[in-house]
Amino acid sequence: CILFCLGFTTQQSEVIVSALVKIMNTNLDTIYKDMVTKVQQEIALQQVMSHIGGVKKDMIILEKSEFSALRSENEKIKLELQQIKKQVMDEITKVRADNKLNLNLEKSRVKELHAQQDRALTQTDRKIDTEVADLKTMLESHKLDNIKYLAGSVFTCLTVALGFYRLWI
């Protein structure tokens, strides 16, 4: 009717209106094809939520299995660490014992060396004392000999002097 007023004939107006109705129906069909119903939307939402729930369960299972794996790995590492610690402590004890043994051996060697040195010093002291005593004895002997010779010389001189005295008197 409006088209008729704008200068179109009735037949032209009907063709234009029918073309517009077809275009509108086609557009609505295309729009309806892309659209979903509320029921379809709820079904899709339930499917997505179900899928998300499954993924959550899988994640929890993976997390627990990874946690268990980490826990077991941690236990293995703890055991290895304890074994290494025990080995280190055993080695430390062994080294300490070896060091104590070596130290005691060195102490005994030093004591033996000191004892040998003391024996050598004692022997040297004895030798020196013996030599000093021998020298004193020799000195005394020489003193006595000197005194004897001196006395003999004095008596000889006296005898000679008395002999001259007698001869002159």
Automatic annotation (TrEMBL):
<dbReference type="InterPro" id="IPR024461">
    <property type="entry name" value="CCDC90-like"/>
</dbReference>
<dbReference type="GO" id="GO:0051561">
    <property type="term" value="P:positive regulation of mitochondrial calcium ion concentration"/>
</dbReference>
<dbReference type="GO" id="GO:0036444">
    <property type="term" value="P:calcium import into the mitochondrion"/>
</dbReference>
<keyword id="KW-0175">Coiled coil</keyword>
<keyword id="KW-0812">Transmembrane</keyword>
<dbReference type="Pfam" id="PF07798">
    <property type="entry name" value="CCDC90-like"/>
</dbReference>
<protein>
    <submittedName>
        <fullName>MCUR1 regulator</fullName>
    </submittedName>
</protein>
<keyword id="KW-1133">Transmembrane helix</keyword>
<keyword id="KW-0472">Membrane</keyword>
<dbReference type="GO" id="GO:0005743">
    <property type="term" value="C:mitochondrial inner membrane"/>
</dbReference>
<comment type="similarity">
    <text>Belongs to the CCDC90 family.</text>
</comment>
<keyword id="KW-0496">Mitochondrion</keyword>
